[in-house]
Design brief:
249 residues, alpha/beta, 35% helix
């Protein structure tokens, strides 16, 4: 019989640590595939901080580094400058990158560090109990805003990170994608690979934001969570390229 699928050997043979319907496992697979396709598995340093992203360390057969919460871009800057020929991949969630780590991502991008960031936006603090994140939508419920996020109560507005970083001259490439259906999974895979290839070509900072479901903390079934990503999240966080070759799209 013709072989149509083979497990990526960067992934260790063990069960996924993520909740049913979580998008992290899909995104990890695409990161691993991109790294394998460019032949950089033995040269990659994968960096993810506290949060659901940290669970990737249990089944990625890569050199890994766990920075403190929010500090991944700063730590990655040091790693890349010490080992400039290595492939440094950041993997951060919204509660991490867009909250405690806002200063780190802004200044790493502004400096034009030659690294690749994969930013998973599931609009919630996943690991720590479902609290409101900087990306939680208006009206969306969380444990710290059980009636739904309300800017009129001093809870602020959802932060659009790609748009926030777009104006920085050090940003070479930025795209927002999603994993709510097969078509967009393929687009995400393409964007991640492009971001990695940019780094290999020493072109500067690449930023890929991925809209992802969190059914457990959203209180939804996996199917409903995918629909929420498509109809609600993508409406506020438009998909597409924001910067290509250092130019605003």
């Amino acid at each position: 019989m013709k072989k149509v699928y083979e497990r990526n050997n960067i992934a260790l043979d063990m069960p996924s640590p993520y909740c049913p319907g979580c998008g992290h496992g899909i995104i990890h697979r695409m990161v691993m595939d991109a790294i394998k396709e460019v032949g950089q598995a033995d040269n990659t340093i994968f960096m993810a901080p506290v949060g659901c992203s940290i669970l990737a360390y249990t089944y990625l057969d890569l050199d890994v580094c766990q920075p403190a919460h929010g500090r991944t871009p700063a730590a990655a800057t040091g790693v890349k400058r010490a080992l400039p020929d290595s492939l440094v991949v950041l993997y951060q969630g919204d509660g991490d990158l867009a909250a405690i780590g806002t200063a780190e991502i802004v200044h790493a991008v502004n400096r034009g560090e030659n690294i690749t960031a994969v930013f998973v936006n599931n609009a919630i603090y996943g690991m720590t109990g479902g609290q409101m994140a900087p990306t939680t939508l208006e009206g969306q419920r969380a444990t710290t805003c059980p009636e739904g996020r309300n800017p009129m109560l001093g809870q602020g507005y959802p932060i659009r990170v790609c748009e926030l970083l777009q104006s920085l001259r050090g940003l070479y490439y930025a795209e927002r994608t999603s994993v709510h259906d097969a078509k967009n999974v393929l687009k995400t895979r393409k964007a991640i690979k492009k971001g990695i290839e940019n780094q290999m070509a020493k072109k500067g900072f690449s930023f890929i934001e991925v809209l992802s479901p969190c059914p457990v903390n959203w209180g939804m079934t996996p199917r409903k969570a995918l629909e929420y990503v498509e109809k609600e999240m993508a409406a506020y966080y438009p998909l597409g390229e924001f910067k290509v070759d250092g130019k605003i799209v």
